[in-house]
Amino acid sequence: MPLLDAGEWDEDTDLALAIAVKWGESDYDYTNEDALLMWRWLIAYAFNREQREANGTVTVEWRPGEFKECAVYQGEYGAINLYLNSCAE
Asked: How would you classify residue 69: left for phi > 0, otherwise alpha for psi between -120 and 50, otherwise beta?
């Protein structure tokens, strides 16, 4: 589960969602921390996707020389880009 929490699969939606489905179907005895991690990722992913559809994306430099297309969150008083582990291309 640490790779999911680290955003390793945020850019590969199909793989990440397949992992979530397999996790749910598994008989493995996951810890409460594992369950929290999965739900937190699903909520963050859904929010990011919603913001991408509602407000579009911007290109940001998230590491020196490395650019990502990131969702934009737009509120009543301003906007921010959602990036780092919430990026998706």
From this structure: beta
What is the predicted pLDDT for the residue at 88?
Answer: 43
Give how far the C-alpha of residue 30 lies from the chain's centroid of Cα atoms, to the nearest Å.
Answer: 21
CB atoms within 10 A of CB 80: 13
β-sheet bridge partners, residue 70: 58
Full-prediction pTM beyond 0.85? no
Write out the E strands in 4-78.
57-63, 66-74
Q: Please tell me the distance from the alpha carbon of residue 24 to that of residue 57, in angstroms, as a whole number.
A: 31
Residue 3 amino acid letter: L
Chunked into runs of 10 residues, the chain (89 residues) has average pLDDT values of 60 75 85 84 81 87 83 83 53
